[in-house]
Amino acid sequence: MADNDQREGTVPFKIPHIDIAGHTYYKIIGDLSSNSPRLVVLHGGPGSGHEYLLSFSRLWEQFGIPVVFYDQIGCAASTHLPQTIGDKSFWQESLFLAELDNLLDSLQLRDGPGYHILGHSWGGRMAAAFATTQPQGLQRLVLASGIASTQTTLQAIDEEEQKGNFESARFKDAMDVFFRNYFCRAEPFPPKEILPAFKHMSEDKTVRETISGPSPFNCTGSFRDWTCIPRLHQIAVPTLVYNGEFDTSHDITTVPFFDHIPRVRWITFSGAGHMCHLESPEITEKVFRVVGEFLMQQN
298 in the Ramachandran plot: left (φ > 0), alpha (ψ -120 to 50) or beta? Predict the structure, then answer.
């Protein structure tokens, strides 16, 4: 990839409700002046960063789709707000949607051919919520291992525990078993692409602990009762939903997208976990082909 196909920077972001001038870090792969709608990628976590999704830059190489990555507020290279840890009233959906709106306006992504959005995991929550507002310029939506409601996630975890698929927390290797079998099934584990995300979340726990809480299995934070299910019928653009056969975003979490979004297609990748795009070469190739071909379709 040529150097002139990449650029990075920050856009100012006036953080709502507190008197702080913040910024959002972004990285662009491809030429925004091309005739193709740009793809804006929302990372998971909450609290990680964009790095583990950089392989989606292949969509520029293979399909000519420019890709815009960014770090959400409080994460990675964007403004951190450690003084807000535990402030559940601050860390709400509206904050992240305001940041996304600001990024789109600052980079003028609503202009010309418009843009697509891909949200992975936690980013899928925000992508779905944003799309329900029927934003100007949005062409297509991809929800990758996304979650429509916190409660459906808790239900999925409860069912797996009842079936004995998770070992007791007393065993020191329980989390390792969980990550290797459901989070990312790549060998060797963990793939290097995920390491920055782990680093970001361990160095600053503000976003993750306030939104989710200390346990990955029981949300006690500001998003405990979050749902976008009642709004999903308002998504007006063609939508691709995908997850993995062994995904932590179990089918229970995905069904509401399929049931309520008017123009939707759902694909489950056989043998895959939560990180479909980072697992076996065969699975990753399928992911990029499916996503690229979907985004290239005409409305």
Answer: beta
